Amino acid sequence: MRKQNSIIRILILVFAVLIALEVIGGGIYLFSASKKLKAITLQPDFTETSLEVGTQYTFSVNTKPSSASIKKATCVVDDPTSSFELSDDGKAVLTTGMNEGNVTIYVECKDIKSQVLTFSIVDSVARAQAEAAAQAEAQKEAEEAAAAAAAEAEAAAAKKYVKSVGDDVNVRSTNSTDGDVLGKAKKGEMFEKVEDVDDWTHILYKGQDGYMKTEFLTEISEEEYNEGATDTTDTEEKKDEKKDEKKTEENTEASNQTKEDAEKKAAEDAAKAAADAEKAAQEAAAAQAAAAAAQAAAGYNLLGVSMNAQEYKTVLDAVRHATANGTDAECVQYHKEHHQAGDIITILVGAGLRQQDW
Fold first, then answer.
1. Does residue 68 sit in the same domain as residue 140?
2. pTM for the whole thing?
3. Residue 357 within a domain
4. Is there a single domain that holds both residue 82 and residue 96?
């Protein structure tokens, strides 16, 4: 009877131990499951949507559950010129490259991937310089256009005159020997010149367009034209010519008035073009000054080093000789191609603008 009771007690003890092991194992499993990584979230510690070249940006890495470890996590970035890695304080740090474009990042650990984030990378300094150069070029083109318009208007306003050096020269309706003969020009007869057309001269002849061979004409001054013909002709012929000229003046008055109106309009258009050019130049100068003021207020950043205007100029001047006295944009490019952030600090320390422990 005692032996039977002992066996029963042993069996009870064995069952109790088994139950205890199951309870302990289940607890361990539940504890491990509570610590298992289920999700990763990246939270930018900044508000910019466009990132600057050569600059560091940090992200908070949140896990679910919050106690899950991501020490063995992998930081992935698709731009070979940029870097993305975890810092000692658990932050994810993105250092942008030196090229404009897009960069995509995410964090992965134990087959758990965070959301994929994509940002655009810009070089605001280079863009501001390019915009200023474009505005200066536009201003120059506007000024040149205004000068050309003024010169054209001045040329159009200046009248030219010619005198016949041949006698009884045909005046035709077109610049061709096939043109109708409108009349004959006597030696010394003077006309207002419109333009040259090949080896013909377009003139105003008795209130209409006429053409004469250029070889039978010579240019004269306005004073000579106003004084009248100087060649010797018969008195009666001169009187007839005077009568014809008087009739011509009466017939051509309307035509001359139209030309004067056209010249006046050309002068007004030239003045308007000059005013528009001056306004464009003022607007371009204002935009350039605003861009410079905005840049000075925002500070400067090169290879991830933030600087004020004096420090930025000192850094660019340090390599200007290497760019053959190049522009600021060329000096910036030289730094990006040949220097690192530590070199920038060294230049500033050497110039006495920063302390050595920076």
1. no
2. 0.37
3. no
4. yes
Residue that is written with structure tokens 């910036």 in the block: 332
Provide the residue range defining the domain that includes 166: 124-295
Residue type, 118: T
The tens place of each residue's pLDDT in the chain, 358 residues long, gives 666 777 777 888 877 778 877 777 665 665 555 568 889 999 999 999 899 999 999 999 999 988 888 888 999 999 999 999 999 888 999 999 999 999 999 999 988 999 999 999 999 888 889 999 999 999 999 999 999 988 877 766 778 999 999 999 999 999 999 999 999 999 999 999 999 999 999 999 998 999 999 999 999 988 899 887 544 344 445 556 666 666 666 666 656 666 677 777 777 877 787 777 788 777 766 766 665 555 555 578 888 888 888 888 898 888 888 888 888 888 888 888 888 888 888 888 888 888 865 4
Structure tokens at 258: 């139209």
Do 172 and 243 fall into the same domain? yes
